[in-house]
Design goal:
180 residues; mainly alpha; 11 helices
Length: 180
């Protein structure tokens, strides 16, 4: 399987293998497993441009690739990653925003610390987040507000956590909105 092959290759990677990894990242649309393997290998090489490539992959047309990129971004130790992902949540396109939100949620879960900037939490309460018509964006915003909004000083967040966030979470759990 792809996962076992990726695990094996991760143990024998050298810097000379980088062109081959780049080739995996450029795999055509239907080969999403190949792109995921490329992201996995790239993140394990600790390449300088790995965060950039993972950020680009947040917009991948296949949800599994975008979701894996979000998880890998969350696991990077680079202190510049969280501010960059926060900026995507505030200013990115709808699909990238949703997966960037999930990346910050995963970072919060792993570090047990809030990775959401106050401006990002405020943006989650608007039409760019919880009030967006896209179900993926709205569901990701609700999850993000649960993780990032609890210690927010924004007066709009508290009432949303008690009411709208719960409604969206129930709707999300009842549907398949994370598999767009």
């Amino acid at each position: 399987t792809t996962a076992r092959a990726t695990e094996f290759l991760a143990g024998v990677l050298t810097p000379e293998d980088r062109p081959k990894i780049d080739g995996l990242l450029r795999a055509p649309g239907k080969q999403h497993g190949v792109r995921m393997a490329g992201l996995e290998l790239l993140s394990r090489t600790h390449a300088v441009d790995a965060p950039d490539r993972l950020v680009v992959a947040l917009g991948d047309p296949h949800p599994d690739v975008a979701r894996r990129a979000a998880q890998l971004l969350a696991g990077l130790d680079d202190p510049a990653v969280a501010p960059r992902v926060n900026a995507i949540v505030r200013d990115g396109d709808v699909r990238e925003r949703a997966y960037a939100m999930l990346s910050l949620v995963e970072r919060c879960r792993r570090t047990r610390a809030n990775a959401f900037e106050p401006a990002t939490v405020s943006a989650l309460t608007t039409r760019r987040g919880l009030l967006h018509p896209d179900l993926l964006c709205r569901g990701a915003s609700a999850v993000a507000l649960v993780f990032g909004g609890l210690d927010s000083t924004d007066p709009a967040v508290g009432p949303l956590l008690d009411r709208d966030v719960v409604t969206v979470l129930i709707s999300t759990v009842g549907g398949d909105h994370f598999v767009d």
